[in-house]
């Protein structure tokens, strides 16, 4: 594409949050009581605005759409996405889009008729609202924008990114190898070292890289006793088995529920605002088909139907998973195709934005689940290139969601088809930008 600067794959001032935001299946719900030493959190410190609810609802819907589109093509046994990180990275980029490109991106992000000011104000308000929600759960969120020296960037675009997303904004020489090192160092620092970097190299003619990074660290409200962890067989989708360390809880009160073809249990963190919902299909039900059939409405029904009961047994595997994928094809299938092709309009980003398009959207995720709790991180880079007893045993492919319960925000969505598998890395993407 003549006159267009480009990014070669790979990937704001960091700000610590003790929470998260990006998705509202139901804007409330009574969390189960936290364990000893945690202060119960039963309500948000203020009511959500109408626009905030719309942004959360839209971001949740976007997350399930994104998972469905990814699962159609990605056959890896484990898929872990962060709808929040993708939504925020693309939401920040949205400030530079105009005309049809803006409309397509807004529609894909499921923001309805909200204008850019409402979207930015909602993100800003939700970030401020949730910062101190649970002192026993750490949630960090950071954004950054890296522009190539010589590329004209609209000052208003950078001002909005700093105001709404706390974005660190930098201008760097993309031909200097130290720029890649600096970007990846920022990623490591923003994820407490869980994710090593987001780019492998930079095309010296690249335009800009926009990044969102999130980090979650929460201890279970009721911790698993390591002495109860046992080696058990985990049955893969093809019927083969693999031995895993299964953590177990019994005789505790947890929100339990289910639906056609699945059972679900909710495991809270800290004071109970954050939780992990584990969804285990019944034998014969495919986890990919199950999760692909979910949308924001079905998710809202699931979580609203979870009721605290004293469970006989809950077992889940100890996990350490990583995932790395380009989201280009999924986002195109969701309606954002024009943003990846010549003719995209990013004149809100740069005076020469009519010569720019998205090169890639890459996301890396990491999640570690053990007896203490969960650590999880995600980085998104946008280049402008149940049985007779009451309980759940996740000894076969299952889905999970990490969420903030009071606002309904979904932080991570995933499936686990083989807890022992390692991720081979992202498949090469098809460059349609020029």
Q: How does this model look, in words?
A:
The protein is of the alpha+beta class and 434 residues long. It has one domain (1-434): Antithrombin, subunit I, domain 2 (Antithrombin, Chain I, domain 2), CATH 3.30.497. Helices cover 25% and strands 30% of the residues. The strands form three sheets. Strands 1, 3, 4, 5, 13, 14 and 15 form a seven-stranded mixed beta sheet that branches. β14 and β15 form a beta hairpin. α2 packs across α4 and α3 crosses α9.
Keywords, separated by commas or semicolons:
434 residues, alpha+beta, Antithrombin, Chain I, domain 2, seven-stranded mixed β-sheet, seven-stranded antiparallel β-sheet, 9 helices, 18 strands, 30% strand
Short description:
This protein is of the alpha+beta class and 434 residues long.
What is the approximate shape? globular
Q: Which CATH architecture would you pick? A: 2-Layer Sandwich
Low-confidence runs: 1-34
Task: Count up the helices.
Answer: 9
Total number of distinct structural domains: 1
**What structural class do the secondary elements suggest?**
alpha+beta
Return the CATH topology.
Antithrombin, Chain I, domain 2
| CATH homologous superfamily designation | Antithrombin, subunit I, domain 2
Estimate the strand proportion. Answer: 25-35%
Number of beta strands? 18
Radius of gyration over C-alpha positions, nearest whole angstrom: 21 Å
CATH hierarchy class name: Alpha Beta
User: What is the terminal separation in angstroms?
Assistant: 4 Å
Order of helical and strand elements = EHEHHHEHEHEEEEEEHHEEEHEEEEE
Helix content percent band = 25-40%
Q: What average pLDDT do the residues reach?
A: 88
Largest beta-sheet details: 7 strands, mixed
């Amino acid at each position: 594409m003549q006159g267009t600067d480009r990014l070669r794959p790979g990937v704001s001032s960091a700000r610590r949050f003790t929470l998260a935001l990006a998705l509202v299946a139901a804007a409330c719900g009574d969390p189960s009581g936290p364990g000893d030493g945690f202060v119960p959190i039963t309500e948000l410190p203020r009511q959500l605005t109408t626009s905030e609810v719309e942004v959360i609802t839209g971001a949740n819907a976007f997350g399930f759409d994104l998972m469905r589109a990814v699962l159609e093509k990605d056959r890896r046994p484990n898929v872990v996405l962060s709808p929040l990180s993708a939504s925020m990275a693309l939401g920040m980029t949205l400030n530079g889009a105009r005309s049809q490109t803006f409309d397509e991106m807004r529609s894909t992000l499921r923001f309805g008729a909200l204008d850019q000011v409402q979207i930015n104000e909602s993100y800003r308000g939700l970030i401020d609202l949730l910062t101190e929600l649970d002192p026993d759960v750490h949630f960090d969120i950071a954004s950054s924008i890296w522009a190539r020296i010589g590329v004209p960037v609209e000052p208003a675009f950078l001002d909005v990114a700093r105001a709404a997303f706390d974005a660190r904004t930098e201008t760097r020489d993309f031909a200097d190898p130290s720029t890649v090192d600096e970007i990846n160092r920022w990623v490591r620092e923003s994820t407490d070292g869980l994710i090593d970097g987001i780019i492998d190299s930079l095309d010296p003619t690249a335009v800009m890289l926009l990044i969102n990074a999130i980090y979650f660290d929460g201890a279970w409200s009721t911790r698993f006793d390591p002495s109860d962890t046992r080696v058990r067989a985990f049955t893969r989708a093809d019927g083969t088995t693999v031995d895993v360390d299964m953590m177990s809880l019994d005789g505790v009160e947890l929100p339990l529920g289910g639906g056609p073809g699945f059972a679900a249990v909710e495991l809270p963190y800290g004071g109970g605002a954050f939780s992990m919902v584990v969804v285990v299909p019944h034998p014969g039900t495919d986890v990919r088909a199950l999760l692909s059939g979910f949308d924001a409405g079905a998710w809202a029904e699931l979580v609203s139907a979870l009721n605290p009961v004293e469970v006989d047994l809950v077992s889940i595997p100890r996990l350490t998973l990583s995932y790395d994928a380009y989201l280009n094809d999924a986002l195109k299938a969701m309606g954002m195709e024009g943003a990846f092709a010549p003719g995209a309009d990013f004149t809100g980003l740069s005076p020469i934005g009519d010569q720019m398009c998205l090169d890639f959207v890459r996301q890396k995720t990491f999640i570690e689940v053990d007896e203490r709790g969960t650590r999880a991180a995600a980085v998104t880079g946008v280049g402008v290139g149940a049985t007779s007893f009451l309980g759940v045993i996740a000894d076969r492919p299952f889905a999970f969601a990490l969420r903030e319960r009071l606002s309904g925000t979904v932080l991570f969505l995933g499936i686990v088809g083989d807890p022992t598998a390692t991720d081979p890395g992202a498949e090469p993407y098809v460059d349609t930008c020029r």
